[in-house]
Every structure is written in C-alpha cells, then in structure tokens.
C-alpha cells in the first residue's frame, strides 16, 4: 500500500524524518518496502501489509500505530452527525441476507454539483495509486484511503423505487459493471439492488447504469459491512478485483461504517455543495467485543523482559483497546477494527511490537534435558522406520488425496469399508477430491513414476493417516503403514532363492517385532486385488489388522507396466490396531544354556486346511506343561506327484528345548509322537511317506 508522509503527519504532531518513520513502522510489524520523494517534496512510503492487519489499509490505521509507538496523540478529523438536520426517511434499505451483510448505511444528498476534485485531493489519490475521476467519486476514494472503509455513490435519479435491497442472486443474473463489461453472476452472489434489479456487485464494483456522471445532482452514498468470504467468492467468480473488494475480503470495521459515510458526506457538502436529506443506518447485527483475559506474568514470561503493568495497559490503550484491571491482571476488549485479535497471545504480540522488538534483549533459551521423554508410540514408529530402512526400503510422503479411479484400480467393491471415503468440497485439484482410505494407490503411483525413469527394483513404504466417513460429523482417522516391493523380473547374475511372496512375508516379522507385536496370526486372504494363494490377512486377537501378498496378475495388467514379468509385493497394516496407548515395559530374558533337539514333521492334509491351524495345534492345544516347544516353522509346502488330488503336504520344523535341564532323546521322541498323533486325529491327515 502507498501512503503519503505529509498525509500521515496531519493526524500526528511529530518531527521524525521519513526514514525514521519507515524504520519505526518496520520494527513495529508494518514493513516499509521502499520510500520515494515526489516532485512536490512529499515522500511516499510503500508498505507491505500482512492479511491480518486490514486496519492498516488506511492512513488513519497506520497513523494509529505510529502514535502508539511515539506516544503521541492521534488527531482525527471531526465527524459531523446529520441526524438533527434531516427529516423522515422516505428511502428504505432492506437487508434480506443478514449473514452476508451485517450493516448498511445510506446517506441521501440533494443538489450536488459534479466537477473536478480539489488539486490537493487529486494529488493524494494519484500518490496512492488511484486515478482521479470527479469530485464525488474522488471523495469516496479519499475516505477509502483515509479510513479503509469502501464507499460507493449512486446517481439517485437512476435508482428505482426509493429503496435499496441487499440480497443474494436467486438465479444467474446480468449486470454491467462500471468497467462497461456485462457479467453473468451465479446464483448465491450478494447483490445491491433497487426495486427492479441489480445495481452493484456487493463489495466489488458498482453498476454502470447508476454511475455518477456530470449530469448527476442527487446521490445515494453507500457504506456497508459485507462478509469477507462472500466478497472473496464473488471477486473470484467474476474475475474482478478492486480496492473495495481487497479491503472487504480482509474484513472492514463494522463500527466505522457510519462514520466513514458521515466523513464523506461532510467532504461532499464542502466541495460539491448540496444538502443531506436522509440518513439510513440498517444495523441488524451489532458488534459485540470479545473479552480476553491477559496475565501480566505471562507477558513477562513470553517476552523475557520486565514491562511495568502501567506500560502494558498504556500500550493497549494507545491502540484503542479497552482495558479493565482485575486482581492484578487485565480484561481486554479489542476495538471493532482489530478482528484479528482473539487470544491472549495476540495481545502479547501487540505489546511486544509497540514496546519495540529492539528493546527486548536477546537471551539464549534455557533448555531442560529430559531422559526417556519420548512417547511409546513415537518410539515404536521410530523403530519401525529403522527396521524398514535396514531392510532396504525408502520412506515416501504423499498427499492425502486420491481419485475415484483408484477404487476401480484395486477392484474395491461397494460394500468394502474403504469405499466410505470423505469427499473434499474445495480440492487442490479437481480429480483429487477424495481423502485416502488406503495408502496403496499412492505407492503404486510412486512405483510407476520410478519405473518410468528406468528403475528395475522399487522398495518403498509410507506411514500416514487415512480417513473414513462415518456419517457422524468428523471423519474417523486411522494410522496406516503400507509397503511396496517391486521387481521387474529380469534375469540377474545373483538372485535370491526365495519367491517374492516369501520375501514380502519375511518383512512382516521385523515390522511386527519393532511394534512389540508377537501374538499374531496369518490366514489366507480374500482381497480381490491380491494373488490367490500368495496372500494373507494379518489377525491380532482374532481381528483383522491388515494384509500382505502379491498383486494379482489382473491388477498388474491394469497398471500397464512395461516389464517382462513384474512382481509387486504389498503390505498394508492398521498401526493403531497394533500400537496400544499403554506403555509396555520391556524385560530381559537370558539365552537358554541347554541344547535343543530338533524334529521334522511332514503331514498330508486336505487342501482347505490352513497351515496356521496346524501350528496352533502344535503350540496351544497339546498339553506341554514344561513348555518344551521353543519354535515351529514351516519349511515345505507341496502339491503334485504322489500327493492325492485335493490334498497337500506341509512340513514343519520343531525345536524342543528346556530352560532347566538337558533333554533326553527318548523324552522328545515320546512328546513328538504325541504331537503327530494329535495332529492326525484333529485334521484327519496322514504322515507323508
């Protein structure tokens, strides 16, 4: 924003040079980017006003900050009230949408004479980057720059029905704006209308049909407060920005609406002649100032400097905050032009910038070291990332958005919980308008991107939150882990003997170990996008906590990967179903010093029998009071020659060990025989010859 140094001096009696004022403003939070001396000797300051400081989009707003820093009195123009000189109001203002228009003030002035504005006013407007037009329009722009309140003047003779109606467009409506462009505004747009139709785009631009011209003698002066979001939407939809919309979007001062109109009316009477006949102020939603508690001790603590209580109150009072002392602390009510002040921290920031950041000494912070201050959840996630990193996997970070096509890619049916997605109303990209319920589509896209650059192997993972629509307010959030391992299938000099499924299955053990999860079970999965027979569901306490497996050949074909025999292994786990909020204490268990005895067992069972059930039979259902079974592992799975149709052979490696003594071969032979008989009885199987 451009602001005149001489104009600023009209409101404060100070002798500081333009350079000093520029430095003062910058150090108080209003950055002066540059200043330039004009031919008439005036210095123009260019300020970078942050979006939260809409009050400083005016000369008086900037002057208020300068006066607060310099502790000088702010001298504002006298506002004349015309209520005692006008008659009954014939002109009516109807606000049909009080949510979008909280206040509308209209002043009717008769007998004005349109001409050029005074030279001094035109020069100030030009210095502020505004083109002079005529005395009436220039006065509205002058008050805009002076108070930050947008105004508009209508030719009263062109308004129909002696009324203004503030309403939304009920359907797409046409209006020709002051730039002579006919625009179609969509339904819902806030409009200023007379008895016959739209005469202005509320808060953005007036209509050409009611513009002030050289023939204008009677005007309606408009000053209003409009909802910032509404004006922002209108400006965006119509591709139209103005000095007015710029300020309305950042929120204007609702209590300054009438004063700005009265100030403009006084200037019009002084420079254009005429008389005020009516003042209408429709204010259905009065402003109520918040009351914010302020602790003086917290001011000292936050800023690290001792500021006297009277100085604190003085700073806030100079900024026109209402301060009430209560029990050594304050209850502070910000003025209506400071809508950005909501919290105690906001007040402390105001105190700091007016007190002077350069007056606050630089002190190294005191840091107290804490041992084991990391939460159990974060500790486990850190170990999980480390385990995956050691296994050769790289972490990815993706956006939380996905597309409808991703459901079809993974053949996720309508009844699946992953279809309960949340749709974003205002997405960053049109197609990516759904919050993720699965991390796998993002990893598949990461994989394809790497393949396009010639990658033959891709090992990646992601830990992130997914979202489910429960139909009850906010979506349900869940923390997930997804892992992807891709191999192009090309021949290599050195190859791992393990199939890709067992490589991805083998990764599950360090993952769950890092999460302190030992009691889990794997069963055959029925995920449609995973290869049948090479996939498994992860069960914890009998409930599903995720799955793993190879991507099915049909799904791989849909990915259109240009490779000979691509293999893609996947894991997806609900981490919050594994990581409990209770901190688990770890204990030390010494290595057993007694030797083990190993036995193998091969059994032929029905093809429908799952190997995990047999493992459970060995571990859990057999009476083993001394807990001699140390581990059970599958080392062979076979179907084919010498195995009957509908049967399969599964071989297990069992390790026996005692914690208290050396086992005898005869003891283990007896126990092993009991296990074999137990399994045959329960499964109806037979020993493989």
UniProtKB/TrEMBL annotation:
UniProt keyword annotations, A-Z: Aminoacyl-tRNA synthetase, ATP-binding, Cytoplasm, Ligase, Magnesium, Metal-binding, Nucleotide-binding, Protein biosynthesis
Residue ranges of every copy of the FDX-ACB domain listed in the record: 592-688
Chief subcellular location: cytoplasm
Segments forming domain B5: 287-362
Protein's UniProt keywords contain Nucleotide-binding: yes
Catalytic reaction(s) noted: tRNA(Phe) + L-phenylalanine + ATP = L-phenylalanyl-tRNA(Phe) + AMP + diphosphate + H(+)
Binding site for Mg(2+): 340, 346, 349-350
Localization: Cytoplasm
GO molecular function per UniProt: phenylalanine-tRNA ligase activity
Enzyme class, spelled out: ligase
Documented EC number(s): 6.1.1.20
UniProt-listed InterPro entries: aa-tRNA-synth_II/BPL/LPL, B3/B4_tRNA-bd, DNA-bd_dom_put_sf, Fdx_antiC-bd, Fdx_antiC-bd_sf, Phe-tRNA-ligase_IIc_bsu, Phe-tRNA-ligase_IIc_bsu_bact, Phe-tRNA_synthase-like_B3/B4
Cofactor(s) demanded: Mg(2+)
NCBIfam families xref list: pheT_bact
PANTHER family: PHENYLALANINE--TRNA LIGASE BETA SUBUNIT, PHENYLALANYL-TRNA SYNTHETASE BETA CHAIN AND LEUCINE-RICH REPEAT-CONTAINING PROTEIN 47
Quaternary state and interactors: Tetramer of two alpha and two beta subunits.
Family from the record: Belongs to the phenylalanyl-tRNA synthetase beta subunit family. Type 1 subfamily.
Protein name (database record): Phenylalanine--tRNA ligase beta subunit
């Amino acid at each position: 924003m451009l602001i005149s140094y001489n104009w600023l001096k009209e409101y404060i009696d100070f002798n500081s040079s333009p350079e000093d004022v520029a430095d003062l403003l910058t150090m108080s939070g209003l950055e002066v980017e540059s200043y330039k001396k004009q031919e008439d000797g005036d210095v123009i300051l260019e300020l970078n006003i942050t979006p939260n400081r809409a009050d400083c989009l005016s000369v008086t707003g900037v002057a208020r900050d300068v006066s607060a820093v310099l502790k000088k009195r702010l001298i504002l123009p006298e506002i004349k009230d015309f209520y005692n000189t006008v008659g009954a109001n014939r002109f009516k203002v109807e606000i049909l949408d009080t949510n979008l228009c909280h206040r509308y003030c209209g002043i009717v002035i008769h007998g004005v004479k349109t001409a050029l504005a005074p030279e001094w006013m035109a020069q100030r407007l030009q210095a502020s980057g505004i083109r002079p037009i005529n005395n009436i329009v220039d006065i509205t722009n002058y008050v805009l720059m002076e108070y930050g309140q947008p105004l508009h003047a209508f030719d009263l003779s062109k308004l129909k029905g002696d009324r203004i109606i503030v309403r939304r467009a009920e359907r797409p409506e046409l209006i020709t704006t002051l730039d002579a462009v006919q625009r179609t505004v969509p339904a819902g747009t806030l409009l200023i209308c007379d008895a016959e139709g739209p005469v202005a785009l509320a808060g953005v631009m007036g209509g050409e049909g009611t513009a002030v011209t050289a023939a204008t003698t009677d005007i309606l002066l408009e000053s209003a407060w409009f909802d910032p979001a509404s004006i922002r939407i209108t400006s965006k939809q119509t591709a139209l920005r103005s000095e007015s919309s710029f300020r309305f979007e950042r929120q204007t001062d609702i209590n300054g609406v009438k004063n700005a109109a009265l100030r403009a009316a006084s200037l019009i009477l002084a420079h254009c002649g005429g008389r005020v006949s009516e003042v209408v102020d429709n204010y259905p939603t009065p402003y109520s100032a918040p009351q914010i508690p302020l602790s003086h001790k917290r001011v000292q603590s936050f800023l690290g400097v001792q500021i006297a209580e009277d100085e604190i109150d003085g700073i806030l009072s100079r900024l026109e905050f209402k301060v009430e002392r209560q029990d050594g602390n304050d209850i502070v009510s910000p003025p209506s032009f400071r809508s950005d002040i909501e919290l105690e921290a906001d007040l402390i920031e105001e105190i700091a910038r007016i007190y002077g950041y350069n007056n606050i000494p630089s002190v190294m912070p005191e840091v107290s070291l804490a041992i084991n201050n990391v939460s159990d959840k974060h500790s486990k996630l850190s170990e999980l990332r480390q385990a995956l990193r050691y296994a050769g996997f790289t972490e990815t970070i993706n956006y939380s958005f996905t597309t409808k096509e991703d459901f079809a890619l993974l053949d996720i049916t309508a009844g699946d919980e992953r279809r309960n997605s949340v749709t974003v109303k205002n997405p960053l990209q049109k197609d990516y308008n759904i919050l993720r319920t699965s991390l796998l589509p993002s990893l598949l896209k990461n994989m394809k991107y790497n393949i396009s650059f010639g990658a033959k192997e891709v090992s990646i993972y992601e830990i992130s939150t997914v979202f489910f629509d429960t139909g009850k307010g906010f979506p349900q959030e869940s923390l997930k882990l997804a892992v992807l391992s891709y191999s192009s299938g090309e021949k290599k000099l050195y190859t791992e003997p393990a199939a890709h499924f067992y490589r991805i299955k083998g990764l599950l053990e360090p993952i769950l170990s890092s999460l302190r999860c030992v009691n889990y079970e794997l069963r055959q999965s029925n995920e449609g996008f995973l290869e049948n027979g090479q996939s498994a569901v992860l069960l914890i306490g009998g409930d599903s906590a995720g799955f793993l497996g190879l991507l099915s050949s049909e799904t791989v074909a849909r990915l259109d990967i240009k490779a000979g025999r691509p293999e893609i292994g996947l894991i997806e786990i609900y981490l919050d179903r594994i990581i409990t909020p209770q901190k688990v204490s770890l204990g030390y268990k010494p290595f057993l010093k007694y030797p083990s005895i190993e036995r193998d067992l091969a059994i032929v069972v029905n093809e429908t029998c799952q190997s995990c059930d047999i493992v459970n039979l060995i571990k859990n259902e057999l009476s083993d009071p001394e807990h001699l079974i140390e581990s059970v592992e599958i080392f062979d799975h076979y179907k084919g020659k010498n195995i009957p149709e509908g049967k399969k052979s599964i071989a297990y490696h069992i390790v026996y060990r005692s914690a208290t003594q050396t086992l005898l071969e005869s003891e283990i032979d007896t126990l092993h025989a009991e296990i074999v008989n137990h399994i045959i009885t329960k499964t109806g199987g037979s020993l493989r010859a």
